Amino acid sequence: MDNLIDMMDEDSKKQIEEEISGLKFTKNFRSPTAEEWYVFLPGYKDIVTGGAAGKTIIHYNLYDTKHFFINTTIIFDDPALHKADLHSLVYAVSDEIVNRLVGYADTLLSVHSGENSYNAEYKQ
To answer: Strand locations in the chain, DSSP E?
Structure first.
């Protein structure tokens, strides 16, 4: 694939690697059909509380014993993560959150992060 051009600069790549390597979670709530996790990133935090940079809510839609679907919502509270120039970081961190907490099961993802908000669907 000699025609591929990597448009991400080295500083952005390094920042993404540092945030993902420092990514931590704390489970805040669990019910039979949902979980809520606080998301901690080394370079970002909730500016009001000084705590988690965001939260992830995983809601399991259980139709019967054979079929289920997962709705995952990620909300980033640090306003710095709402700026368009950090879209690659928000996308990479969100993808890693889905990987670690949901494991790429069939899920609908909704990311709330200001200008970086988006929806995605993961199908196994």
So the answer is: 24-30, 34-40, 54-62, 68-76, 107-112, 118-122
Residues in the chain, overall count: 124
Distance CA 9, CA 15 (A): 10
Res. 30 pLDDT band, cuts 50 70 90? confident
- Cα–Cα distance, 54 to 47 (Å, whole number): 11
Q: State how beta strands 24-30 and 68-76 pair.
A: unpaired
3-state secondary structure of 36: strand
pLDDT in tens, 36-89: 999 999 999 999 999 999 999 999 876 665 566 789 999 999 999 999 999 999
Residue 5 predicted with pLDDT over 90: no
What three-state secondary structure class fits 13? helix
| Sheet containing strand 107-112, strands side by side | 24-30, 34-40, 54-62, 68-76, 107-112, 118-122
Quote the pTM value: 0.88
